[in-house]
Amino acid sequence: MWKAVVFAETEKEHDNAWLMLCKEFDDQRAILLYLYRTYMPIRAQWARCFIRGYRNFGIRVTSGTEASNNSIKSYLLNGMSHLFRLAEAIEEMMADQEANFTDRCAQDGVLTKREYSRQTSDYLGELRTTMSLKGLTLITTQYRRALKGVPTKSNPKPELIGNCGVDCLVSVELGIPCYHKVYAKLLSGKTFSKWEVHQRWHLRESAVDSPYWRILDPKIATALRGRPKNVAQPVPERLAIGASSQHRGPQERQPDGQPNSQLPCLPCGTPVSTAVEGSRARNSQPTVGSLSSEHHGSPRRRAALGPGNTTGIRASGQRMQPSVRRQRV
């Protein structure tokens, strides 16, 4: 369900997925509070519906360093290796990655798929020999969407596909033609040139050694990935934890006499410790059943267990229960 929150295409789908997540895991408020306080204020940096307007070429990994740290663990037997063994493992990993990259480039250079050599792929033009296989796959996805507007024998009058709108961000994000441009090429009978896609998808650099060409395309080290650099924003009140559970029916509510250990609806800006202390104060009020049991001297008492050693409680600065393992006998 968290993937649905991350990869939602629109902001409305993102909000609905978050509310469904809060409703499904309503009994795990510590984890929800951690996500609400840590990740939701900066959702413009990781949510799919917000980062579609940046040139990222479909890359979902936020940090190459974290990916390298994860890969280096497969080259080490355990965590007790010395520093020299770590340096050797890094060299081995870099050599394997370089060999893998060379093999991938060689596979892209050889046109192995018959799909792009047929007559139906004539719209690609010179992209079939100058573009990588991954880029051709992305353009094929846009081509299939554009086919819905092409008249056929079974559908002679399909729905017309207009020009690009504000919501069409394929060219901005991936650097390839969107299905609107593919549709225009299919109607006009023209083909694409290799300069209509970003140079990232080119198989090799141009062999033309001309000073005028260097002026048009200088060797400047530019960042090929766009990443939003914004500050934390307040989370809207409609996404507060517990907002989806306020509309529950009477059959889903807890019966009378049972303490409600869940936290109330928390808007952005409410301290976690204040809400937890308020919920503890309500749970500590004696009920009719507890008073009757204490009056008759019953030795069995019900003790409400507090939150355990979780990440969300630790991040909020709340005092935790002492560990049982650390107590000396």
From TrEMBL:
Instruction: Fetch the InterPro entries from UniProt.
Output: Zinc_finger_SWIM
Q: Looking at the record's lineage, which domain of life comes first?
A: Eukaryota
Bias class Polar residues marks the residues at 281-292, 308-321
Spell out the residue ranges making up region: Disordered.
243-329
Entry-linked PANTHER family: SWIM-TYPE DOMAIN-CONTAINING PROTEIN (PTHR31569:SF4)
Q: What is this protein called?
A: Transposase
The species is Thelonectria olida
